[in-house]
Write a structure and sequence with these properties.
By secondary structure, the protein is mainly α. The longest helix is centred in the first third of the chain and has 32 residues. The protein is globular.
């Protein structure tokens, strides 16, 4: 009889323990799930956030932090003597120039063929060049590419990177070519030829 009572008490205790665990798990699951689904006010899954360019993340960080991220950026700017602002401005210029290049490539799909390349490689090369010189225009990058192709075999010093380095230092295309060994007449003739080639490529849509 006592053994039966002990078994009954053990069974009752086990049932109570299972009930308590189940109740606790249900409460935790409800707390974690509140507002997380599509119908609970959370954002829907899939797709990038709205906006484009380097300022999109900045705007979002400011609104989500209640303006605290703005204070952080101000402090960073003060502590770096404005270097963080300068870096952000460089990123904005590069992003703007890259968007213009995308427009140019879309409007003139035969342009890459005139440079013996494809649109993806041409865009990737320009994007890489913007890291060192965010002010570099797509037109100057295209011209530097074609100039090096036309002149490099006779003038080994004239490479695209050599021209781009001089453009980054503030030299013009003409000055860059003269720096690399051409006289004024040769430089003007070389640029005129490249201008004609690029114009012709843009006309052939």
């Amino acid at each position: 009889m006592s053994k039966l009572i002990r078994n009954g008490a053990y069974t009752a205790s086990l049932c109570l323990l299972v009930l308590l665990l189940a109740t606790s798990a249900f409460a935790q699951g409800k707390g974690k799930g509140g507002g997380g689904g599509r119908g609970g006010g959370g954002s829907s899954a899939g797709g990038p956030p709205p906006g484009r360019g380097v300022d999109r993340g900045i705007d979002n960080s400011s609104s989500k932090s209640g303006g605290r991220s703005d204070d952080g950026r101000d402090n960073a700017s003060n502590k770096s003597n404005g270097r963080s602002d300068a870096g952000l401005e460089r990123a904005r210029k590069a992003s703007s120039n890259l968007r213009r290049a995308d427009d140019d490539l879309r409007d003139h799909p035969r342009l890459p063929r005139a440079l013996h390349t494809n649109a993806n490689d041409l865009r990737a090369g320009y994007e890489s060049a913007l890291v060192g010189n965010p002010d570099l225009t797509f037109g100057n990058y295209v011209a530097a590419t074609r100039l090096s192709q036309n002149l490099g075999s006779r003038n080994p010093a004239i490479t695209r990177n050599a021209i781009l380095d001089r453009l980054a230092s503030g030299r013009s295309l003409g000055q860059s070519l003269r720096d690399l060994g051409l006289n004024e007449r040769e430089e003007k003739e070389a640029r005129r030829r490249v201008d004609d080639e690029i114009k012709k490529a843009k006309k052939n849509k």
